[in-house]
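=== RUN LOG ===
request id: a7f3
mode: sequence -> structure
chains: 1
length: 348
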Amino acid sequence: MNPLIATAQALMAPGKGLLAMDESIGTCNRRFAELAIAPTEEARRRYRQLLVTAPGLAEFVSGAILFDETLQQNSDDGRSFIEVLSTAGILVGIKLDRGAKALAGHPDERVTEGLDGLRERLQRYAAQGVRFAKWRAVLSIDSGLPSRACIQVNAHALARYAALCQEAGLVPIVEPEVLMAGGHALARCSEVTAEVLHQVFEQLHQQGVVLESMILKPNMLLSGEDCATPVSLDEVAEATLSCLRRSVPAAVAGIAFLSGGQPAELATARLNAMHLHKSALVAPAAALPWPLTFSFGRALQQPALAAWAGDDGNRVIAQTALLHRARCNAAALRGTYRPALETAGALA
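=== RESULT ===
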């Protein structure tokens, strides 16, 4: 398993995070529609091209998670996006799940599918040069939700996926996302997230997954987006790190937070607060055993997408927006991010 451990450690390189650019065709088209961008394969290719060719991206990004369509596409000069990223020093990953579907017998709950034929898909991706993968499970908080059945079936699927990844020589990113939707308080999010993580690691243990060769991609602990009680940056940091210390084994290679629909600057500020909180943990018993980083999608991409707006004449502006967000998040990993850095040119 040593090559997998090396890959996991490379993904968690100090000062770097992951670019999640693995939106499905439908999700990407919906985001295009908001900006009146044509929902075509060529438009998606041109957009993904500006992301992977952003100059200097590897200074802040260790790995990029792609969707299958993107993995098969080439840049204007004929190179595959895999080659473009690899040449730049960025590891290539792939989204493997096939989406969350209705969970039979459990209204308003979903289970992520895609295990059928996964071993064969993994072999094909590994041969193409893919080094890691991602699988996302989604769990909603509501009255009586998530049910134990929903937690267990999603944890089991995550563990089977992770075991198959390691068998094929890929590092699995395990993403159990407790959604922000709803009016629940921070304490309820903490309770549910802890239960989900305990179940996930129990299933990972049962399936024989090597923790040193996997990365956890959890949600930050937040109150629901409709909750009337706001939470501070410090409250988010304290609740999140406290939950993770109690729920995540020390052997895990690293933790890469998802942004989960948070505004870009707020996601960065919360990531920064966690690193400030982490640096304040002077007692050995309170120290964190794993590195923390980001694996952001919209919180990295949205400013670039808005700047591009389907016009390649805006490519440089869009790439500048992407690199700005990447720099801000890299600063958050050092605990040195501050709102003043959002000023144009402050991080140039």
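=== NOTES ===
The mean pLDDT is 95.
Residues 256 and 294 are 5 Å apart (CA to CA).
=== END ===
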